[in-house]
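pls design
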């Protein structure tokens, strides 16, 4: 079997996986010029792939028309230098629609997010993701989180499904993930991909890497690419001293700050992008902006993170 081109590129990344925020103007509409700039900067700073209109990109808050505009803008900004993976979600019919829109806009793959609202059984989840995978020629990564939690047997079936190339975990149950990795490795040997999709995934990536999950989302790359790159290189080269210094001095305090507000996994990231000089606007409801004090703490924390890089030289 010929390896999927996207799987081959993601399986051996040259840098962090970039999940850009979606830029909104003062009137609340999508600002495609700023969004292109944000994506372009990420690619030029060393991102290995762009995951457009996913969780950090407020997929839930975009209309289908805005989604298409943003995916197309991300593809244009990436310019073929790295692959662009687009989100797709809601109920099966809408997820299929988003998948086809993403394909028409030039995306290289899909991140299939959980179905909306309902808590489905394993059989229903399989039907959902199989229909999404069959709807286009785009390879699909299935995102486990919230109301879409899978048994190892279900993931084995997903791994055998044409068009599904990977599995992203946003639940954080390491025992479950170890059993999933083991089951797929035993029954579907090959290049199935695994991603750590927890918020601020760097915080848990040492543990995920140990159980066979080498890839991870990096929201920090949106606003502090040098810090994200330094951590990525530390993992790649086995430099635990640097990894621990960044975890202890930057990532753990960032996670603790993130825990101070619901929705801060997106809202803090967007505030941090603004702090670093790119006006990407505010989050859309039902998310809310961080408090003034939390933004002040965020600014101090980013400065501390960059100071840690200098200490390591």
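designed seq:
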């Amino acid at each position: 079997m010929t390896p999927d081109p996207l799987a081959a590129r993601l399986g051996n990344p040259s840098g962090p996986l970039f999940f850009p925020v979606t830029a909104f103007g003062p009137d609340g509409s999508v600002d495609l010029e700023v969004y292109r700039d944000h994506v372009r900067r990420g690619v030029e700073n060393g991102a290995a792939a762009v995951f457009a209109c996913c969780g950090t990109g407020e997929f839930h808050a975009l209309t289908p028309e805005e989604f298409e505009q943003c995916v197309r803008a991300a593809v244009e900004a990436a310019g073929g230098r790295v692959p662009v993976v687009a989100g797709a979600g809601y109920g099966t019919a809408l997820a299929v629609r988003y998948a086809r829109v993403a394909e028409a806009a030039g995306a290289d793959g899909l991140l299939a997010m959980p179905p909306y609202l309902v808590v489905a059984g394993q059989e229903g989840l399989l039907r959902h993701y199989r229909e999404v995978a069959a709807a286009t020629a785009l390879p699909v990564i299935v995102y486990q989180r919230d109301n879409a939690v899978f048994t190892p047997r279900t993931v084995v079936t997903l791994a055998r499904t044409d068009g599904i190339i990977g599995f992203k975990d946003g639940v954080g149950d390491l025992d479950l993930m170890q059993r999933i990795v083991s089951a797929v490795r035993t029954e579907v040997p090959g290049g199935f991909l695994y991603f750590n999709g927890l918020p601020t995934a760097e915080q848990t990536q040492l543990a995920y890497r140990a159980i066979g999950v080498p890839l991870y989302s990096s929201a920090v790359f949106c606003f502090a690419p040098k810090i994200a790159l330094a951590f990525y290189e530390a993992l790649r080269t086995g430099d635990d001293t640097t990894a621990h210094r960044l975890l202890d001095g930057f990532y753990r305090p960032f996670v603790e700050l993130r825990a101070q507000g619901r929705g801060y996994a997106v809202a803090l990231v967007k505030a941090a992008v603004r702090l670093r000089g790119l006006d990407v606007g505010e989050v859309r409801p039902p998310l809310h902006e961080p408090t003034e004090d939390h933004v002040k703490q965020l600014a101090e924390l980013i400065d501390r993170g960059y100071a840690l890089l200098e200490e390591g030289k």
